[in-house]
Design goal:
243 residues; mainly beta; YmcC-like fold; 2 helices; 50% strand; globular
């Protein structure tokens, strides 16, 4: 467990998309406890007939007990890197509290989003006002938006992030959980050290979001630090349940 936490700290320093890295932490935590990953198909399948076309970001509200299970794969090798499940544990007018449990881990950790799936807090990081990688209340092809955020660690601003997002289109996406009509948007993230601005990195995050599922069904990330690709992965939905 200690080594997993140390690894997460190193990754946060080197990567821009901390939101995704928190999920990766639980994968490393699980890897420390198990040497194999169960890659069986989801027992519960969902078809595209259940999912209407996303003419807007008209999401059905989340409820306690809603859950989404994802697999993480390396885009270069195709290898499975891990699996984790997000489960809604509480909601308020502003927040959605979520437990994250990696396959093989004995205990979950807890993170907080807003209702548009912008990450606000993790066990190690607080984002002010949030991490900026969520959706907008209304989205159509060609829409763009920009945000500036700060990453707070140990009561200090560790990183400054500048993000630009654009809605690319609407398209069907097939995963083990079914086929979904999704809104596709791309977020470019530039991050610099708040104390040492020479420390920097960039991430391109491509998200396929299904309003009826009220979560992303696929998310690809490519992160570059010091002109080297340090992360090139995709997460895909393999199972989900709504209350």
């Amino acid at each position: 467990m200690t080594s997993a936490i140390s690894l997460l700290g190193v990754l946060i320093v080197r990567h821009a998309n901390v939101a995704f890295l928190i999920a990766m932490f639980f994968v490393y935590q699980a890897a420390a406890q198990t040497t194999s990953v169960d890659n069986k198909s989801s027992e519960s399948k969902h078809t595209s007939a259940e999912v209407p076309a996303p003419s807007s970001t008209d999401m059905s509200p989340v409820a306690v007990g809603d859950h989404w299970t994802y697999e993480i794969r390396d885009n270069v090798t195709g290898n499975l890197k891990g699996q984790y499940t997000q489960t809604v544990t509480d909601t308020s007018s502003t927040d959605v509290s979520v437990s994250v449990l990696a396959l093989g881990a004995s205990l979950p950790s807890y993170i907080v989003f807003d209702h548009l799936w912008n990450l606000k807090t993790t066990p190690l990081v607080k984002f002010v006002p949030n991490d900026g990688t969520g959706v907008k209340e209304a989205m159509k092809v060609g829409d763009t938006w920009s945000v500036r955020t700060s990453d707070i660690r140990a009561s200090r601003t560790a990183w400054k992030r500048t993000e630009k997002s654009k809605v690319i289109g609407e398209e069907p996406v097939s995963t083990q959980a079914g086929t979904f009509n999704a809104i596709k948007y791309e977020t470019t993230i530039d991050i610099r050290g708040a104390i040492d601005p020479t420390k920097k990195g960039s991430t391109v995050l491509t998200t396929w979001f299904s309003p009826s599922v009220n979560h992303w069904v696929k998310r690809a990330e490519k992160t570059v630090t010091d002109k080297h690709v340090v992360n090139n992965t995709t997460i895909e939905l393999v199972d989900y349940g709504r209350q």
